[in-house]
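Internal tracking record. Fields below are filled automatically when a chain is submitted to the structure queue. Please do not edit lines marked as system-generated. If the sequence contains nonstandard residues, flag them in the REMARKS field before resubmitting.
Queue: standard
Priority: normal
Entity type: single polypeptide chain
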Amino acid sequence: MLAGEASRLEPSSFASAVGAEGKRSLQSREVCPMGGGATRLYTSLTQTFSSSSSPLPVPHSYLSPQPSLTNLDPDLYLKGSPVCPLDPVELPQQCQEALKDRPLHFHRDFVHMTDRNGNSAPCSPIRVMQWNILAQALGVGVDNFARCPLEALGWSRRRSLILEEILTYRPHILCMQEVDHFYDTFQPVLAGLGYGSHFCPKPWSPCLNVEGNTGPDGCALFFDESRFELLDSVNLRLSAMMIPTNQVAVVTTLRCRSTGRCVCVAVTHLKARSGWEWLRSAEGSDLLWHLENLVQTPVGDDSGVKVPLLICGDFNAIPAEEVYRRFAASPLGLDSAYKKLSPDGLTEPKYTTWKIRATGESCSTLDYIWYTKDSLRVDAVLDMPSEEQIGPNRLPSFHYPSDHLSLVCDFSFKEKE
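SYSTEM-GENERATED OUTPUT FOLLOWS
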């Protein structure tokens, strides 16, 4: 179990820290119009959280409630059987049919590290995807993408594009941010494809301020149950100077069924916007502190052995920021996988997000997959689409459902010394 009182605040302490104004804000959001089953689902979850005497990590019953007939996306289920998801073979066909009039999918190639160093390819790599998918409520609401047609932001189209991207690469581990359709779409659909999952909503999601939203956004972690056995999972509320923030992380420990080796996977989303660099640094430090404690804890048959880490996230930080430097210099021995695309292995891509808002154009590298370099090896990295592929109106678009590009890497365990 992870330690740290700042991120494991008791509900009574939480209420005291928030104060009366915060309580009124939370209550007002509970009744924000969310549409049918999503309203009832989120209200019940909020009441469970508010009345619970358990600190974060949140109970598993809160993380993965059973879907009800009222909150499932009806377009993704077979007629006459709303609780029976589509067959895994039918789902890609449905996505293709829904997207038949759209421009071509970005063509992206894997760059294999074995091509550079001459080593033989791994027998069974672990594929990891990191992706800020863009919360639906934010995309049509406060994000204000100046050059993206409103039709391109419709949920039915974006949902199919997001699922197509996931199905194209079929990761064993999928880490996502800004997930506001977890319960009605991603959890039931991906469960039908063999994925276990954990979700942690933001305490005060900006999605709840958008009329017609489907509940709070948060971080979600999915894992292929045929490849991994779940050992433990905790949700963290990140802190800055002992004060809880609105940012969260999911930390899950898995055992690979084919090798017996364990890996700890974290997914997070740090504070956005310029001027908040100090807060991102503090949140990142808090996450590192938790992870340093966790990897010291014996797990299963690897007693006394540090568990290798995979840390995926939208850090909202360019490589020059302090939080990036903190991760690069951490005693956990981390490296950023996407540096492998550069000729010298030292430089991040030019961009992982490219958008045009009313305030101007933004082209930045904000998303990362960190890994324990002494225990894990990067075998392949999915390259970035070119500026020509992205197009003059940037992201999101009819081509692509998010303002952030997915990062996909193949990893393998290094041999134990």
